[in-house]
Design a protein that fits this description.
The protein is of the alpha/beta class. 49% of the residues lie in helices and 11% in strands. Helix 2 packs across helix 3, helix 18 packs across helix 19 and helix 24 crosses helix 26. The radius of gyration is 30 Å and the shape is globular.
């Protein structure tokens, strides 16, 4: 038997999955070969299976180091559900009594336990170290491994003691797993665990449906934000702020401007927080204004925009928060307001903290500043930050790839700026230097008599924004640096001194303001993708009303692509409606009349000439394959046998059945579901679809988050649900 066959059989037998996700199989094989392994895999990618399955196949007990007691209990319960004996998986932590710990140790020594979960604090206890030295260890799994790194977003000092403890217990392969880590954090994890030669497995960080934009934060920021949200009418969004006060003030500002917005932060009463979150989920509020406390457990797939009112403290935080937009694969607009003063303010907050902590924080802030001020593709910069190459010349989905820049020669301006920095003995900030060059006789300039400097008013013809742009580019290029302790005084670097002695070409990108405003407007981002956004919005409202009246999720009636097609081709007869993708005779008969009525009234009121040549693919005639599938299901033929007889795999057969059901035909596959699925699993998935806002399978898998629920399970129950509730 080949390794692949062995793993597939074990996967099916123990977990009920037919296939591995992504690079799970390669990860498991690498670990079983005795190699150290580093896994970087997004949430929902199936990290836990990467150590659960090999633990069952390898000799001994696997030690899993996990940071949260609740997480350990959930994983142990999940493992026990697969087996008749509880001894297969255990945890040792502070929640257990002495007698319970002794019982766990007896199971381990008897060879019953394949997985032992430990908190890092428990691993550090001498009595546990002494006990584990008696045990055959198959491997060590370090879950949430980013907790090791001081550069990570959830640093736990206890994690840094794992490696010496492991050395004391006994050598075995190590697998480190995390959902987010920059190259710096990854290196820190590998170095600290002593696995620098580990095989590294990474999944992509690219979110192609997200549009990234950074705007200058001015005194008009509230007006800009209100205009932006109004253009997003009917779409849900999150606005992130750094302070609780800003959250309260901004949410009030939005409300008085007729935007349904609610605040959310850790200082609020827990019941009020919960009520505000529910109001957002149920679309009673369009916007949540929040600190980063909001979003970690949010399961709303159709968040259409995420705004950073304040610049985040790190790019890692920015990436996580923007990632809450467009989780269903639909549009997601990520807007960030940026001002260099916000960076300086955040730096000031770090004063008084340990120097090492300040250095890390300042480095993270510098990376955030570099991202905000760069004219390069933002997607490329973000992916590069996480160690991933993006090779496209233009992503088409960020402001920098859509804007037009002109390069100006700034050699003379940079020389002037560096000269002034030297003349001022490196004791002043950028604003002061710009005022000198512009000839602005501010109170500070006059009090220091800097209006008497030779270079005073030497750049009166230049825009202040241009001078600031040159200074920022000089900082990024390493000609200048900012002194942290003096809150941003400019210093000239050795490279800057070389430049002063021998100036060379220094080109700075400046946005071309001569372009028409509509040339800079991102196309295809703000709209729904339908030809007629007004009609699309009307149809969504109608769907919402029917959904409430019939007590079914909106997607059961018609999915968004069907509504978009209606808003493109304006069907006004039953025959035309059935030509819309996803609308068969059954659906048209059940829901069609009200939609046709609304579309017809809209067409007449707006005197719309419908394009006669625009024909959408018809599904009026069923193919012989579809008819034979319907007949076979009526005869209760097992779907496995049906797929085999049609020369299909299960995925292809389910696609055919889904097309039949979503077109409005009722099918009963209970005979097959009841044969392969336990009733509690069926109920859990069915209940999910009763309250879900989308029928997306991957969103369902994330929400259910059970290792024993497969994609095929979800698709089968979705077919049952759609057939019973929608047809």
């Amino acid at each position: 038997m080949t390794r692949h066959t062995q793993l597939i059989k074990a996967l099916k037998k123990n977990f009920g999955f037919d296939t591995f996700k992504g690079n799970q199989e390669a990860i498991i094989e690498n670990l079983m070969d005795g190699n150290d392994t580093f896994v970087l895999m997004p949430t929902g990618g199936g990290k836990s299976l990467c150590y659960q399955l090999p633990s069952l196949l390898m000799e001994g007990t696997a030690i899993v180091i996990s940071p949260l007691i609740a997480l350990m209990k959930n994983q142990v319960d999940a493992m026990r559900n697969f087996f008749t004996k509880n001894g297969i998986a255990h945890f040792i932590n502070s929640s257990l009594s002495r007698a319970e710990i002794n019982a766990v140790k007896e199971d381990i020594l008897a060879g019953k336990t394949k997985l032992l979960y430990l908190a890092p604090e428990s691993l550090n206890k001498d009595e546990n170290v002494d006990f584990l030295r008696q045990v055959k260890i198959s491997f060590y799994a370090v879950d949430e491994a980013h907790c090791i790194s001081e550069w990570g977003h959830d640093f736990r000092p206890e994690y840094r003691r794992i490696h010496p403890i492991v050395q004391r217990i006994g050598k075995a392969p190590i697998i480190a797993l995390t959902a987010t880590a920059t190259p710096k954090v990854q290196h820190d994890i590998q170095k600290n665990l002593g696995i620098l030669k580990a095989q590294v497995f990474k999944s992509s960080f690219n979110r192609p449906n997200l549009y990234y934009e950074v705007r200058e934060k001015t005194e008009e920021v509230d007006k800009e934000l209100i205009r932006f949200i109004r253009r997003m009418e009917g779409k849900s969004g999150i606005v992130y702020c750094l302070s609780r006060k800003t959250v309260e003030d901004l949410s009030e500002t939005l409300r008085v401007n007729h935007i349904t917005a609610l605040p959310y932060h850790a200082g609020m009463d827990s019941q009020q927080r919960s009520e505000n979150q529910d109001a957002f989920l149920m679309e009673k509020a369009q916007v949540i204004v929040a600190t980063i406390a909001f979003g970690m457990g949010i399961d709303k797939p159709d968040v259409r925009f995420v705004v950073h009112y304040d610049i985040p403290k790190s790019l890692e935080g920015y990436y996580q928060e923007t990632g809450r937009a467009g989780r269903d694969g639909g549009e997601g607009y990520c807007l960030c307001f940026y001002s260099p003063k916000d960076i300086e303010r955040l730096r000031k907050f770090q004063q008084g903290k340990p120097l090492a902590e300040q250095e890390i924080s300042n480095q993270l802030l510098f990376e955030t500043m570099s991202y905000a001020e760069s004219t390069l593709c933002r997607r490329r910069l973000l992916l590069h930050y996480f160690g991933e190459d993006y090779t496209e010349d233009n992503c088409g989905m960020c402001d920098n790839c859509r804007k037009h820049y002109k390069l100006i020669e700034a050699k003379e301006l940079l020389s002037l700026i560096l000269e002034v920095v030297v003349q001022l003995k490196e004791k002043f900030k950028a604003d002061h230097i710009v005022n000198i060059l512009k000839g602005n006789e501010t109170a500070a300039v006059l009090s220091y008599k800097h209006n008497e400097l030779e270079d005073f008013a030497s750049a009166t013809d230049e825009e202040e924004t241009t001078l600031h742009a040159v200074i920022r580019q000089a900082l990024l290029a390493g000609f200048l640096s900012k002194d942290i302790e003096s809150y941003g005084d400019l210093r000239i670097t050795p490279e800057g001194k070389k430049f002063l002695k021998k100036p060379v070409s220094f080109k700075v990108p400046i946005e071309d303001t001569e372009l028409e405003e509509n040339e800079l407007e991102p196309q295809g981002i703000m709209g729904s993708g339908a030809a007629d956004d007004v009609l699309f919005s009307i149809l969504k409202d109608l769907r919402r009303k029917l959904s409430k009246k019939m007590d079914v999720p909106p997607f059961v009636i018609f999915q968004d692509p069907s509504l978009e097609a209606m808003a493109t081709s304006y069907p006004i007869t039953m025959e035309e409606l059935q030509n819309i993708p996803g609308v068969g005779a059954g659906k048209a008969k059940r829901y069609g009349e009200e939609f046709i009525k609304v579309i017809k009234e809209y067409v007449e009121e707006n005197e719309i000439i419908r394009p006669e040549d625009l024909r959408v693919r018809t599904v009026a005639k069923r193919s012989s394959t579809k008819i034979s599938i319907i007949q076979a299901i009526d005869r209760q033929v097992d779907l496995d046998d049906l797929a085999l007889s049609k020369g299909m795999d299960m995925d292809e057969l389910l696609q055919e059945i889904e097309a039949i059901v979503y077109s409005g035909t009722k099918l009963n596959i209970d005979y097959f579901i009841n044969q392969i699925m336990e009733s509690d699993k069926l109920e859990e998935i069915y209940e999910y679809f009763q309250t879900a806002e989308t029928d997306n399978v991957h969103k369902a898998m994330e929400a259910l988050d059970e290792d024993d629920i497969t994609e095929i399970d979800v698709r089968l129950v979705r077919i049952k649900f759609q057939s019973e509730m929608g047809n």
